[in-house]
Amino acid sequence: MNHFKGRHFQKDIILVAVGYYFRFSLSYRDIVELLRDRGITVHHTTVMRWVHHYGPIFKALWRRHQTAHAKSWRIDETYIRVKGRWAYLYRAIDSNGLTMDFELRKHRDYTASYHFLKRLLTTNGRPDRLVTDQYRATLKAVKHLIKQDYFSKSAHQCSKYRNNLIEQDHRFIKRHRVRSASFQSIRTASATLSGVEIVHAIRKRTRRELSLIGFSVVDELEALLAA
């Protein structure tokens, strides 16, 4: 599928704009300035539309080509401000620190926890260990999924110490939002965070593979589109 058909700018320009936005803590106007220095004139609202359009596309492509993960998982959620209110970004990584899945929800409750965990288990199979915090809604979702035989009771652990790995991993997502404008809707927040999470996930995988070439966000997004 040609995801760039009908666009007024070339594919390379769009990938540089969205790739840099997802990778670094830059505003839309920062991206406009970087492009202007290279002789390309684009409005910041155009960059914004690209970000909102391509974030979900990269997420769908990344999920389609997911590779196997370690069987020890860490599950947690972090706070994201959307139009003056807190929303909750549910995230899952394996014991190697590689991203498994993520989802932005309006509420931090049983329904959000249950649907996120069920999707994770359906996609990745049964874990040998599933580490969560002691939040009541999460524990209720875990108990329900154990009853439905998605995984065994012995695999579940509540441990703040073991969840330090994902707590540290939240920092990239939180730091990325420092320079950017606050989100105005769940839809745009979800679209933007999808791109940020995917680039972060790819970079972690590349660093783990000890690539001699180094990380290039544009090259990695090109490879994702071609896969």
TrEMBL record:
GO MF terms here are: DNA binding
Keyword match Acetylation:
no
Q: Transmembrane residues, as ranges? A: none
Write the lineage as a comma-separated list: Bacteria, Bacillati, Bacillota, Bacilli, Lactobacillales
Q: What is this protein called?
A: Transposase
Xref: NCBIfam families: transpos_IS6
Per UniProt, the keywords (alphabetical) are: DNA recombination, DNA-binding, Transposition
| Domain of life assignment | Bacteria
